[in-house]
Amino acid sequence: MSSAYWNLWSSVPRVVQLGLVFGLLSASLPSTCASFETKPDFIKTCRFDQANFVDCSTESVQGLFDKLVTGIEGLEHVGTIDPMKISKIRILQGDGPVSVNASLSKVVVTGFASTKVVRNVVSSKDFGWETHIRLPKMRLEGNYHMQGRILVIPLNGHGKCWFEPSGMDIIMRTTTDLYQKDGHVYYNVTATKVDYTISGLRLHMGNLFEGVKVLEDSTNQYLNDNWRPVSEALKPIIAKTIEDILLAIMQNIFHQLPADYFVADLPQGAS
Ligand SMILES: *[C@@H]1O[C@H](CO)[C@@H](O)[C@H](O)[C@H]1NC(C)=O
Ligand SMILES: *[C@@H]1O[C@H](CO)[C@@H](O)[C@H](O)[C@H]1NC(C)=O
User: Fold this and answer.
1) How many structural domains are present in the chain?
2) Which residues, at least 6 apart from 73, have a Cβ–Cβ distance to it below 8 Å?
3) Could you list the residue ranges that cross the membrane (predicted)?
4) Can you give the pTM of this predicted structure?
5) pLDDT in the model for residue 168
6) Contact criterion met (CB below 8 Å) for 19 and 248
């Protein structure tokens, strides 16, 4: 996922604010507790003490992803993930070799339907997860507004943009606490760290330089020709943006779906 493909800058003093608005399922449904009183069929239940726990849990997470693509009935605040709609992403970075003030709005991300969960490991000690997922192709479109600089190029403008990363390999390390609610154990997802690689990137930013077409075309050409250093420069902030999006989604999901539906022999006692 790459809500930040166009945030071509990295480094430390940064603030990423996300407004997440998800598709079809609205928050207007009444309280959730009742929705998942019994385990939905799409969740495959595994046990730490089974021989092939990692294979089982990989399959289980794949099943969850597949179901999220079209949306899970009764799950509040989480709509479809393909397309995934995000109302606004803001990036503000002050001093340093690169500085930027940018926003991306009305963002639509497509491609998650072909997410492949390569491996999911759940720790039986601290109940954290390490998840490796592969996304062959993704497309992000939206309206951008930015002032900033990437590599040696100033980028000023606002208009429509799209980004198409391909061959994305993501490793996500998630920490959780367990808690009890209504006779079940739940995950409290507390943090996630993302690392990723991509094998290609195509992009376009329209109306750069307030419509000076020659500059716009040559700059887009340059960014595409140099996609590798461009995406390397952007990596920390893209990773941070992906982390914020995933964290919000996972927190929503796992405060509603009991953890013991996924791993039956989690301790009932808390962690
Ligand atoms: C960032 O840009 C927005 C919109 O152009 C502006 O309102 C805001 O003051 C800017 N923030 C900084 C710190 O420059
Ligand atoms: C989840 O963790 C956060 C941060 O540690 C904490 O503030 C919150 O109360 C926890 N929620 C539950 C339901 O345990």
Assistant:
1) 1
2) 25, 35
3) none
4) 0.81
5) 96
6) no
Position 22 in a domain = no
CA of 133 to the centre of ligand 1 (A): 35
By CB atoms closer than 10 A (0-12, 13-18, 19+), residue 69 is middle
Concatenated DSSP letters of 22-43: -SS--TTS--SGGGGSS--TTP
Decide if 37 is inside a domain. Answer: no
pLDDT of 18-59, one tens digit each? Answer: 434 433 333 334 444 457 889 999 999 999 999 999 999 999
Q: CATH number for the domain including 157? A: 3.15.10.30
Nearest CA residue ID for atom 1, ligand 1: 101
Q: Which domain holds residue 130?
A: 52-261
Helix 227-254 and helix 213-225, axial crossing angle in degrees, nearest 10: 80
Residues in contact with 2: Cβ distance below 8 Å, sequence separation at least 6, in sequence order = 109, 138, 140, 163, 165, 168, 238, 241, 242
Q: How far is the CA of 255 from the centre of ligand 2 (A)?
A: 10
241: three-class secondary structure by DSSP: helix
